[in-house]
Amino acid sequence: MCNFICYFVEFCSFFCHKGGRGLSKSRTGNPLQNTRHHLIPSSRIFLCLKNSMMYRNTKVVRRDFHEAWHTIFGNMTPIEVAEFIVRLSPVGYFKKVIMEAHLWNFTYLVDLQTFEQQYSFEDLRDTKKVAWQKLFANKEWFWVVVEIIESWSPSGYFTRVELTAKDSGNNHVYTLSL
Length: 178
Ligand SMILES: [Zn+2]
Description:
The chain is α+β, with helices and mostly antiparallel strands. It contains six helices and six strands; from the N terminus they run αβαβααββααββ.
């Protein structure tokens, strides 16, 4: 029964969210204006659980950056975004990727053993490429993933991370354990 209510409420919140996003994207909006971004997208949260969020879920983001974010990542959750970026990076760039996130009683684990590239940056639509440039400029893949973990997720959401990557001669290592 609770599940049914949750699904129903999530269904409704999806439409509310659409409406809200439409408003905040008004064409007259100043691109330099601050807007409120939900780190875990509203459309991905069961409303009946919203009041029990154990951490702060919003971040103030300038409108142009905010729109760039959703242009690329839509309503992905932070761990989905991080995984997407790893799968967008060139084959063999990342050597080890373990990421674990918690949301209420759910655990999300990304443990990649093989590193075939699944998405190609070149195949992204031009609007997405422009948005990527706006958000990350020429930042390396490794540091983009670290930025997602440190700046685009609620604190306490990622509970375990082990990342290693190697570019021309440089080794990068990032670990997090809560
Ligand atoms: Zn947002």
